[in-house]
Specification:
There is one protein chain. The protein is an alpha+beta fold. It has five helices and seven strands. Strands 1-2-3-4 form a four-stranded antiparallel β-sheet. Strands 5-7-6 form a three-stranded antiparallel β-sheet, with helices on both faces. The chain is globular. 33% of the residues are buried.
């Protein structure tokens, strides 16, 4: 358990911590995107509105589905993010899944990813999503452990030539 972690929507008071977290993740693990369609030059208030619109299915980039963006916050510090897609398109049904998450490198190995995923299951239930499809890279043992701790049942491995890294796929019953 990661005591004190709150999974919630990004808020205006998170701006400096969010900017720091996005920068740190980009510098520490460029393979993960912390904030979708975010740049250092982005207006934070406009970005909050964009996230809200996406959750309502508005202004979605082509090929996207409605998505809720949450941050894991501990003592006022953004330690990670979790995106929750309420429906699956073809790509998400094969590769991406309902949920994606990332933890800022300096906050890893503290149980935050597990706690964020656990808390998101309650959110999924409240939205009527009872079976959650989730994936991780085949070589990402920490993420595999998080998913399995949260009840993930192994469904198989992908075999898609377009992927640089194949995925392990799981189902979680919320």
């Amino acid at each position: 358990m990661a005591p004190g972690l709150e999974l919630r929507k990004l808020q205006a008071e998170d701006e400096s911590s969010f900017r720091r977290a996005a920068r740190e993740l980009e510098e520490g693990d460029a393979s993960l995107e912390f904030a979708f369609q975010w740049t250092e030059e982005s207006d934070f208030g406009e970005y909050l509105q964009l996230l809200e619109d996406w959750s309502l299915g508005k202004r979605l980039p082509e090929g996207w589905v409605p998505c809720h963006y949450y941050v894991g916050v501990v003592d006022g510090e953004v330690v990670g993010r979790l995106s929750l897609r309420t429906e699956l398109n073809d790509f998400l049904a094969r590769i991406g899944g309902h949920i994606g998450y990332a933890v800022v490198p300096r906050f890893r190995m503290k149980g935050y990813a597990t706690e964020m995923l656990e808390q998101s299951l309650t959110i999924c239930r409240s939205m009527g999503i009872e079976r959650i499809f989730i994936t991780c890279d085949v070589d990402n043992l920490p993420s595999r452990r998080v998913i399995e701790k949260c009840g993930g049942e192994f469904a198989g491995k992908t075999d898609y030539p377009e992927l640089v890294k194949q995925k392990r796929t799981y189902w979680i019953t919320a």
